[in-house]
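Researcher: I'd like a structural prediction for the single chain below. Treat it as a standalone chain; there are no partners to consider.
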Amino acid sequence: AEYMGMICKLVTFGEDRTQALREMARALDRYVIRGVTHNIPMLRDIITERRFVEGNITTNYLTEVKTTGAQAVHPGYGFLSENTKFAAKLEELGVVFLGPNSKAIQSMGDKLESKRLANLAKVNCIPGYAGEVPDVPAAVRISNEIGYPVMIKASAGGGGKGMRIAWNDKEASDGFRLSKLEATSYFGDDRMLIEKYIDQPRHIEVQVLCDRHGNGLYLNERECSIQRRNQKVIEEAPSTFLNPETRRAMGEQAVAMAKAVGYDSAGTVEFLVDSKRNFYFLEMNTRLQVEHPITECITGVDIVHQMIRIGKGNPLMLAQKDIGIKGWALECRVYAEDPYKAFGLPSIGRLTRLTPREEQNMGVMAAVITAKEDWRNKLALDRSQKCLSDKESDSWRFAVTLEPPQTDTPAVSASKTTFDVSVCMSTDISGQRTFHVKLGDSPVVAVADDFKLSDKVLTPKLDDGEGGEVTMQLLDRTPDGRVTFQYKGTKFVMQAISERAHDLYKWMPLKKVVDLSSKVIAPMPGLVKSVSVEAGQRVAEGQELCVLEAMKMQNSMTAGRSGTIKTVYFKAGDTVSEDDVIVELD
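Model: Treating it as a single chain, here is the predicted structure.
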């Protein structure tokens, strides 16, 4: 235990216990209990097999700490890691919390307080209102004073929850009301703030390490600009956008921010960066983040190991001059969303099977992490595409579309088009069959008949002049010859029919398109939070009719056209199922 001191019993848990245990076991196996590693699997079993009863989660975990006699606790990277009461209770018990002190968590968890401290530390801040916004009229007034567009967000928020962009007074009014409801539902704290919205920003965060001896350093940056609903989808380290001067300036301000609050663990300072590389403090995450492995990939620093050393009271074993950049790493989060329902409403269900691709230097958690020891990010991107295409899953629908960068940054794109494809088959003297495929005016591509439509993952070989191979998933087959594939996250429906059948298709009657503009239909199961209309009331197109809460998100349901309300089928407090009609117009 030469690096650690004498922490001999350590317990990990949190909302993400499995991954936290894997991280901690790695650190333990390498650095902590040399000579008695046979006890580590037993410790893992104690934690992973124990089931906590419903109730006060903090009390249950504290009971576990006392039962195991733990001397240190790592909270994982869920909400427990930023629970100030939990950290303070551990301090009272004399148990080391492997994270920052409770005062730092509390200060940085409050966006109003963190902005005040950032200003004192001379960190660049986004222009905005320095205080709590009390109500809708004040929100509209302050938004006009700042100047549209503005960002309305929860003071205690995180993960993109309780956040809205407003471009005018109506959006400011609606956004404040909905964000306040979300903040109460998610965080139990409805305090709101408003600041200037930076149009077309890049979201770049800096990983920092600070000890209890006044030392601090930064482990470079991660770019998280590709997001859905303000939640990260693709994370990249290092950023393609930063130059060495901006990287150093951001890193120095991140460390200054951490020192200003007395930070003493691993943390992340998030910035917004505009097109001219001006950067502004956004918030500080006082925990280990799920994307930390890509920073480890490019710096070679084991962040969990450093957290344990800091927790014991040891000074940092590294200096800023020791931190470089080697290679490129990407993390791609896979969300349970249905891309064919408003492009990404949550897909609800139990995950019954997940078959990830296993490859060297690639980890699979709730995300896919790839790394390549090459300064160009193209290699890491190629490996990400292949890994995501090979991922097989049942029950959940998820959208994964990752295209190579056209400029300097990965881009997400999708399109839907119908093609006529001509296919013929040839058989050579050895009996090997080959499909010859022609799409419009494009050259003929030869596809070897070396795959089976009974396989979930197909890897046909192409003779397209480049000797390529594609990886796709077989999602569905129907008796009429329709086959559904998924390639790079995009679904393609193919139908193999004879030329005669193709000619007769033009005489088939078209399916009638149902007009849904007169109905407000629940896009997913949820709770009706409010209904703002009644039968007989005249409404205008785009007017809010009700608010549906699903997955703790507030969804404003609006009228598809102007008209008169015919029937309101549900009231506030009712639960609806997917496709239920909530309101109907004449």
